[in-house]
Amino acid sequence: MSSQSGLSGLNAASRNLDVLGNNIANANTVGMKSSRVEFSDLIASSAGGGGGTGGIGVGIAAVSQLFTQGNINVTGRDMDVAINGNGFFQLTMPDGSFGYTRDGQFKLDKDGNLITNAGAHVMGYPTDKAGVATSTTAQILKLPTAAPIAAHATQSIAAEFNLDARILDNAALTAAGHSTNPRSAFGTSLDVYDVQGVASPVNLYFEKDAVNNTWNIYGGIDTPAVVGPPAVAAVTNPKLGQMVFNAAGGLTSLKDGAGAAVAGTGLTLPAGTFASLNPNEPTKKIQTAITIDLGKVTQYGASFAVSNLTQD
Question: How far apart are CA 89 and CA 109, in angstroms?
Fold first, then answer.
């Protein structure tokens, strides 16, 4: 029995080394889970009810995989994904059978199907544009790589900028013998896109008024091509509106280009206010409605809400 016990120990140790070697060889294999050998003792049976012998060695009860969470690393590839926690990626193998993997190194084939390195198709649930699942049945994931992406006109923009309350108004500068504040010093440009994907900049400029904590809004800098709303359409460079702040920097009231107080919480600069700067269509008007939100703008750290942007 002693020799048989020794041989069983050598065989078990050899099998354990095989498993350990496999673990080490796959240390850098994505999605690989290590295994371990689980040993069991071999009990000798006793004959005739007499006194039996001791064990006859050791055997391999099982080789089990350890599904512990591995490290998640940034790869720089958009098609690489990882599972944090339990679960598998469901696959349809090349022969049509089902499979599962933790390896998220996916690629696209010539037809736009999401596949593994072995050519298996990755399964998933199709969704609409909002990310809501459109089916409860797992399907082969396919990206419309050959289909063009439809152009959409700009719908909304949120812009943030600062209006410096320390700037002297133009009346104070003139009294001190200085020139007025250059309007170009406080401006911003927002690109809007039409349904063909053509960009046109919307330029807004802010000039501090003679009244303290008051800023006038303009649609351009002495540019005849910029046409204002109907009430001030004859002005070469019209004032589109006015913002009035309190001593704490909060926006307290809004006025339109004609100086009338704006009812409600927002000043809307009407569509057609801005001319296109596209050299191919210099007379084109950007059909844009811009809303300045009374509740979001401050003089020290302005949050300028722009919404309902369209262009035709």
Answer: 18
